Amino acid sequence: MKLSTLIVLAATISWSQVKLTQAPDRIRIEIDGKHFSDYIISADAAKPYLHPIRTAGGKQVSRSFPMDLVEGEKRDHPHHRGLWFSHGDINGWDFWGNEKSQKGAGKGKGEIKVVKVKELKNGKKSGSVSILQDWIDGSGKRLISESRTMTFYPDSAGVRSFDFDITLTAIEECVFGDTKEGVFALRLARALEEESTGTMTTAEGAEKEKNVWGKRSPWVDYSGTLDGEKLGVTILDHPTNPRHPSYWHSRAYGLFAANIFGVHDFTKDKNATLGNATLKTGETFRFRYRVILHPGDVKSFDVPQEWKKFAALK
């Protein structure tokens, strides 16, 4: 075999994997030799988040603001950073709209801080990072210990997917208040907004914000055209998640979020505590989600089949 052939094979082997690299302020994720995203764990971040989020073809589906300023992008909601998991009311503290530049709700703002990066795994079939994080209220008290594992998979036929497995353990009794401001969320690029080319679709076939926002579904797809390419983002809510199927706090301006707690907001019920959930000391909530970046729209990509595969995971 020629040396040039060996070099090409070696390069192919080295790229056909998921590689994670830790730096002081982030964890870099590369898929098949290409930068996919960074998990930002900087000490000055109000909460950790993934940014940017790129397709297998390299297109960025997440909004750049406030991390980067891009002409034509909206500059609202500075707490909508890439892809994140938080909630707007825990014992009255706001872990959602918690940027330093914002006025917090209730008692004020909380923060989510990385305590320890427990394990990084690289591999051909997947790569993962396991992290321990604390949810800290405005007085400096630890309310929740979060154990999170994020698993990333190599590209397959232009499809890129990654999983979240999040366990929240109450350090003291915690009440998750009924508010639409939560929890597992992605802010999409301007071109994918429904106000541009995008369309939200539920598992039941409902379309557009007026038929998706505040409704329950095991998955929602948000597809549009980005730089001339039809593509979409799907979020799957695992059937073992609390209160499955999730309600969806998904907006025409590009917010794409699963939220089980905002019941009175979503149903327009006058009982403002309808969606409250309490974790007693030592009790846990476990949340699992899969995010899929796919070519085409919800009609050309078989989301129901992807849902079946994810739902089958024990």
Task: Explain this structure.
This protein has an eight-stranded antiparallel β-sheet with strand order 8-9-10-11-20-16-15-14, with helices on one face. A four-stranded antiparallel β-sheet has the order 1-2-3-4, with no helix packed on it. A hairpin with a 2-residue loop joins strand 15 and strand 16 (229-237). The protein has one domain (18-311): Beta-galactosidase, Chain A, domain 5. 10% of the residues lie in helices and 40% in strands. The protein has helices at residues 3-15, 209-212, 263-267, 303-311, and strands at residues 18-22, 26-31, 34-40, 49-51, 83-87, 93-94, 108-109, 111-121, 127-136, 142-152, 160-170, 174-176, 182-187, 199-202, 219-226, 229-237, 247-248, 255-259, 277-279, 284-295. It has four helices and 20 strands. The protein is globular and about 45 Å long. The protein is mainly beta.
What is the CATH architecture annotation?
Distorted Sandwich
Largest sheet: 8 strands, antiparallel
Report the total helices. Answer: 4
From the N-terminal CA to the C-terminal CA, the straight-line distance is: 45 Å
Mean pLDDT: 93
Q: Could you estimate the helical fraction of the residues in percent?
A: under 10%
Q: Would you count the extended β strands for me?
A: 20
Instruction: Return Rg in Å.
Output: 19 Å
Q: What shape does the CA trace take?
A: globular
Give the strand order, joined by hyphens, for the main sheet. 8-9-10-11-20-16-15-14
Based on secondary structure, the structural category is mainly beta
Number of domain modules:
1
- CATH classification, class level: Mainly Beta
Q: Would you give the CATH topology?
A: Beta-galactosidase, Chain A, domain 5
The amount of beta strand, in percent, is 35-45%
Indicate the low-confidence ranges by residue numbers.
1-14
Order of helices and strands: HEEEEEEEEEEEEEEHEEEEHEEH
